[in-house]
Design goal:
mainly beta; Immunoglobulin-like; 3 domains; six-stranded antiparallel beta sheet; five-stranded mixed beta sheet; about 45% strand; elongated
């Protein structure tokens, strides 16, 4: 009997020990905290500024073309975008085709900082407006003339591209596309009275001839050319025509010499490389040299391309000047820089001065 009691007590002790051990084990597990429980991972992202349907522009350009955001790819951090054009009433708008392009978010948001409005991508037409045609038959030939209902004109060049105050200029070749009978031609400049051309003749869809009568009190400098079709659609060719001061123009102000006092030279231009990022770029340049003409202007020229005339010309000294160019999109390549006197004669040239990409 005594032995059974000892066995029973022994079993009791073993059970108590097991319970104590189990309790200690539970407490240890519940008080152990893993690194995953103590550390929280926080992911932040600024995210894209624009979404599908946003219409954005580069505020530094006066171009009437904008970008339509088609979509955003978060994996590649890129926008799919397309060019969009305003309607004749100023509303947005239409695309001339269904082409799109892909660009990085950082570049797009850096250049196109102005959000104009928002629309739905599907509401924007993705093809050029339909053009109705009529056939005109004569004894010798048959021609097809495009209707002016939906055609938007585009100017590519003008000859001559300058004239003097107080004179009449015969424009022999205003070149471009989609010109139709009844189109008007106008010279415009901010803060100045428009100059409407007379004797406007649409020789073809690509050529207009007309006459410009330049009043003697016209502001000298660069003027924009505007061709407007009867439909109201128009195109503005910026800084396409230069008005120069005539030697016979009578003024009440004291004039300064229009040529340099010595041999004009160009030693450097800054920046020497610019990028348009697929849109018109209004860019300033600092030019270092000697004996710059006081009333001159500058041009960028490249073989096979229309010259780009400066929109402003500020002479800090005879050795330093600041000039601005409105560079059209797609003007890629190396361009020569010309400094010209007010009479159009070349004072100095620096070849391959500016690279546009």
């Amino acid at each position: 009997m005594s032995r059974s009691r000892f066995v029973f007590i022994g079993i009791i002790c073993v059970l108590i020990a097991c319970i104590l051990v189990a309790g200690c084990s539970d407490t240890s597990e519940s008080s152990t905290v893993t690194p995953e429980q103590t550390l929280a991972t926080v992911t932040t992202s600024s995210g894209p500024l624009y979404s599908a349907g946003d219409i954005v522009k580069n505020p530094k350009t006066t171009s009437n073309i904008a970008l339509l955001i088609i979509s955003y790819n978060s994996g590649a951090d890129t926008y799919e975008r397309a060019y969009i054009y305003p309607n004749s009433d100023g509303s947005w708008g239409y695309r001339i085709n269904s082409d799109t392009e892909t660009a990085s978010r950082s570049v797009t948001e850096k250049v196109y900082t102005e959000k104009v409005t928002h629309t739905t991508v599907s509401s924007i037409p993705t093809s050029a407006p339909t053009v109705a045609t009529t056939t005109v038959t004569t004894v010798k030939t048959t021609t097809t003339t495009a209707s002016s209902a939906t055609m938007q004109p585009k100017i590519t060049s003008i000859d001559p591209d300058n004239g003097y105050t107080g004179t009449t200029i015969s424009i022999t070749d205003l070149h471009g596309n989609n010109f139709v009978s009844g189109a008007t031609v106008t010279l415009v400049k901010s803060g100045e009275t428009n100059i409407s051309a007379s004797s406007v003749s649409v020789a073809s869809a690509t050529q207009i001839t007309c006459t410009l009568v330049i009043p003697s009190n016209t502001s000298v400098g660069n003027w924009d050319i505007v061709v407007t079709n009867p439909s109201g659609l128009y195109h503005k060719y910026q800084n396409g025509f230069t008005v120069r001061e005539s030697d016979t123009t009578t003024t009440t102000t004291t004039t300064t010499t229009t040529t340099s006092s010595g041999t004009t030279t160009i030693s450097s231009v800054s920046p020497s490389t610019v990028n348009t990022y697929g849109a018109d770029l209004y860019q300033s340049f600092t030019i270092i040299g000697s004996s710059f003409p006081t009333n001159g202007y500058a041009k960028l020229t490249k073989s096979g391309s229309n010259a780009i005339t400066s929109s402003s010309y500020y002479l800090s000294s005879t050795t330093t000047l600041q000039t601005f160019f409105n560079i059209p999109a797609g003007s890629n390549g190396s361009w020569d820089l010309l400094i010209l006197n007010s009479d159009g004669t070349t004072a100095a040239t620096l070849t391959n001065a500016v690279t546009i990409s």
